[in-house]
Design brief:
The chain has 214 residues and is an all-alpha fold. The protein has one domain. It has nine helices and two strands. It has a two-stranded antiparallel sheet with strand order 1-2. Helix 6 runs parallel beside helix 9 and helix 8 runs antiparallel to helix 9. Bound molecules: zinc ion. Zinc ion binds next to loops.
Amino acid sequence: MKPKTSTKLVEKRFGKTKDEQIAELNHPMTTIRNDLTPKQREFWWKTAHRVYMTNDRAHKYMVSERGRTANVCKMCNKHKETWQHMEYGCEELQKWLDRLEQIYNEYVKGKEADEWKKPTQDEWRLKENTEMSKDKMMVIAIARWQFHKGWCAINYGTKRRIDVERLAERVEETLTTVREREKRRREEKERQDKERDKQKTDEKENKKRKRGTI
Ligand SMILES: [Zn+2]
């Protein structure tokens, strides 16, 4: 007798369903992939797959010789750190999201750009099907990655508080290198275009010369 193939079984064997895989895609895996460094891409991949351990999960599943990890969020020291809290709900993160307006305005200075609006949760996730300008995506891609580094430092006990101004400086530095890279790419493309045009003109001249029109 043939065994019944339930959806559950298929999922168990082959991992996630297609819809689930699509839901996990984000812009750093697709749209802005080439604008990020391997480390930044790795962070965004892990975020999409929720690889990072929140204190709530650590509390449930991990016991060290010093006992259970506290489930409290070490950023605000007030609430239980669930994924939802860590990703969007924490007031320390919300303060950071407010700070981004200034960073964004600096980043798009002298350019025609959309007005900044505080990112929604889907935007903060850079979800693949969320539409926004590339400038906003880049600010979020770098800002969330840097914030995560601060989160790590606090959770590993190497820092006690998030220094928002220091973090903002780091993000601005990274965004400057992003702009420089963009500029270099643009200049290289212009150089190639010019080269191609020159070749075309030369070929035309050569043809004329052969025909004896010059
Ligand atoms: Zn918190």
